[in-house]
């Protein structure tokens, strides 16, 4: 178990190494992540089971015009999945945004033997820990058939494989942020996610159509850095905003001078008349 966890964490921290498979045991070479930014997921064709055991189209979670956070895990995972879900939970606790309001979360089990009852139990446990009642309508825990799971995983670039020796799935850890139309907009790697990074990723996916004016303003100041795999200050954006602010201040100053001069001229004409 420890061996599998260490390898999974290695994949999570270095997806390129996972993709290349250098120095990785043969049975785990398929457990990396391939970035497919901009790829379209077949949301209307993919079907799963919700927590009540009902067959649902993945597309029904995309018909609200909101971005989607997709996580691929399995509910009885003894190590990495719990770390990843707990990391997401900690991030949600720190955010003002709530699943079901600004965005939705779809958590899909990669284990076709897991059922809706298990999904329902997992959802109840995490919603109770989150403590935000609105989230119940926006965080979905799904199970499904193997062919549907594999198709979804392949389309988003999530590699996984069953390790017979360890009797568990080997996989990486990442969140996939999708647009309301089902395109892959951003990936957040690892088992811990900065609230700012998740918020900015959601803003990007929604093209600024969620959040406040201040939230949308942040998109001018931050850009995703592929090297650090997080959002960092975008200097050109800051300079543009500073320049615009300077122009506005100067315009206001000139306007005030002009208004005072006009007022003085008007008073002078009145006094001489």
What's the layout of helices and strands?
Layout: H1 2-13, H2 15-20, E1 47-49, E2 55-57, E3 68-73, H3 80-94, E4 104-109, H4 116-130, E5 139-142, H5 146-156, E6 160-163, E7 168-171, E8 174-178, E9 184-189, H6 195-205, H7 213-221, E10 222-225, E11 230-233, H8 235-272
Parallel strand pairs: 3-4, 4-5
Antiparallel strand pairs: 1-2, 3-8, 6-7, 8-9, 10-11
Helix pairs in contact: 6-7
Largest sheet: 5 strands, mixed
- Average pLDDT figure: 80
Point out poorly predicted stretches: 1-21, 235-251
End-to-end Cα distance: 97 Å
Beta-strand residue fraction: 15-25%
CATH topology-level fold name = Glutaredoxin
CATH class type: Alpha Beta
Shape: elongated
The radius of gyration over CA amounts to: 25 Å
Task: Give the fraction of residues assigned to helices.
Answer: 40-55%
Strand arrangement within the widest β-sheet reads 5-4-3-8-9
Helix tally equals 8
Main structural class: alpha+beta
